[in-house]
Amino acid sequence: MADAKKPARRGAEKTGTSAGGALHRYRSHTCGALRKGDVGAAVRLSGWVHRVRDHGGLLFIDLRDHYGLTQVVADPDSPAFKAAETVRSEWVIRVDGSVRDRPAGTVNPDLPTGEVEVFAGEIEVLSVAKELPVPVFGEPDYPEDLRLQYRFLDLRRETLHANIMKRLDIIRSMRRRMHEAGFNEFSTPILTASSPEGARDFLVPSRIHPGKFYALPQAPQQYKQLLMMSGFDRYFQIAPCFRDEDPRADRLPGEFYQLDVEMSFVEQEDIFRTMEPVLTGVIEEFAGGKTVTKGWPRIPYDEAIARYGTDKPDLRNPIEMADVTEHFRGSGFKVFAGMIEKDPKARVWAIPAPGGGSRAFCDRMNGWAQTEGQPGLAYIFWREGEEGGAGPVAKNIGPERATAVQKQLGLEVGDAVFFAAGNPEKFYRFAGEARTRIGTELKLIDEHRFALAWIVDFPFYEWNEEEKRIDFSHNPFSMPQGGLEALEAARSDEDYLKIKAYQYDIVCNGFEIASGGIRNHKPETMIKAFGIAGLGPEVVEARFGGMYRAFQYGAPPHGGMAAGIDRMVMLLVGARNLREISLFPMNQQASDLLMGAPSEVAPKQLRELHIRLAAPDRKA
User: Which helix (H) or strand (E) covers residue 360, if one does?
Assistant: First the structure.
């Protein structure tokens, strides 16, 4: 007999009896609790009908609850048979019966309750289910909006249900490890003031203060720093964060959660030594047998861009890019040689492709580059008996230069190399995408690893092309390397752009999973740093008054980080979308289809808030 292969969930236990020794109204055991030692016992189970199977008059009901699944049997001689004939999938029923061994040959070793079954003596229908708009059994490929509209049904599916429970386990592990590391968990306000954290705020109108608004926190950044000013030493929080930004696969619209951390009297190395074991331990605990990086490498931002074309490299991919500009300077490949001659910033980067040495693969990559809006992707490949490589580039630069490129990159017969040229600021992202594409196409990525690294030495400032001015590159509250002296020594925009920050990210398998920094705790440095970004002292005091005032009264050196819980869970359960690890997410249009949010509100509510709508004309 075929039945569901469903593991018992944690907490599958006997639930006990009511006062006086009678069975509990709904269950004596959960659906994941019964074992061979329970044979002969009278039991009561309640749950959802997972499915019903009719084997020639013998009815089998797979009964499911949060903890697992039990097979229930009813035959025509059972007083429960008539009721069993009526039940359908997802009906909620109570079953009274006796536990017995499954017949020989029908044991299910994949099910914790697979050695036993319950022979039904009585079945009570507790709730009837209409025809389901989305199935619960199996892993159906249904439209996402339909699944989100009926999320309460979608959450009954085994994989999604297990993902949510795994998420809770991961958060529980984080909390335990943080407490063991000497941290205390604090809760910070949800209604706060607007703050420039890099995205739009969700604003909440104040009824008591007409015309004024609270903001939902993009992160508890200022509050956790104020806790350090208040004399608390090691803070953490499983913090809800709210950002009004466009959704994507690795970022939920509206809200997300992070492991938020702050420490006093620390330098960057102290943060690394404290948090690396915590996160390594969490990942190892839930890695499912995959290897986890020990002793995370520390890669400077500039090096990450030059080697991988991104500041969140997937280090499971062994490909590292290299600068080969000098091999093309004055060469016969006029496209690259001309760039190098005209622009002192022009460089040629090589992207090795071990095992990609065929014209078919090279042409395929060239075609892919054109779909990415590029004119193409120059290449050389090496095959047996062909000195100096093959392809138009090799022909134009000659065998001596082509062989020099080959030796620099350590390539062999059967390998290829692709090139990106110009100003790296304009092409590095494309080069990084090409590296990822090559690694994926050639199956070079080790899928059995969690590859972690610190990315350090981020630029403190960047150029805002839209507003033609200097702007903060990352977190505006970070300490510039060199402090106030570095800021005062700079004489030009170019000098400012060379200043690095005590800012760092943690990357794992091509995702940024955490970001942090040593904070700027000196008021004069803060004023100078914001002034360079075009925000004068009056703006700093108006927008960050609480923290700026706190800096005047003895601020300890401090720093911290925040790890994205949703993204970590997604990686650890192997999901491809954050909606597969979140309870009630919004869709790609930032709408909650289950609850109907966002929604219109009554005119009375708007009057109380002193708000008059000026929504755009929908017909326009």
Answer: helix 359-371
